[in-house]
Amino acid sequence: MITTTKLEVEKFNGKFNFLLWKIQVTLLVKEGTHKALLGIEKKSSKMEDDECNNIDFRAKATIILCLSDDVLYNAMNEETTAGLWCRM
């Protein structure tokens, strides 16, 4: 049997505590995509490029889902998770 967990994080709109939001978004650790926050250039030498790109894509998608439209609009040109994370 497969168990799924639904985690909810309030969308960051720039009007409440960013540090608290950032802690909540570390749910990336639960997804196994937290390494994307370090940047693609710091990937493990054991990790294949396709796997690294897949992790980065999933992590970026998770962060995007946790941003309000206004905040996302200002960061939508970031191509990597690390770039998006630093932009916040």
Plain-language structure description:
This protein is mainly alpha-helical and 88 residues long. The chain has one domain. 49% of the residues lie in helices and 0% in strands. Helix 3 runs parallel beside helix 5. The longest helix is centred in the middle third of the chain and has 17 residues. It is globular. The model has no long low-confidence stretch (mean pLDDT 78).
Structure keywords:
single chain, 88 residues, mainly alpha, 5 helices
Q: Layout of helices and strands, plus pairs?
A:
Layout: H1 18-25, H2 28-31, H3 49-65, H4 69-75, H5 81-87
Output the helix-strand order. Answer: HHHHH
- Poorly predicted ranges (pLDDT <50, ≥5 residues)? none
**Shape field:** globular
- Main sheet, how many strands, which sense, barrel? none
Termini separation comes to 38 Å
Q: State mean pLDDT (0 to 100 scale).
A: 78
Number of domain units = 1
Strand content: under 5%
Count of alpha/pi helices: 5
Structural class: mainly alpha
Gyration radius, to the nearest Å? Answer: 13 Å
Number of strands: 0
Helix content: 40-55%
Entry summary:
It contains 5 helices and no strands. The protein is mainly α and 88 residues long.
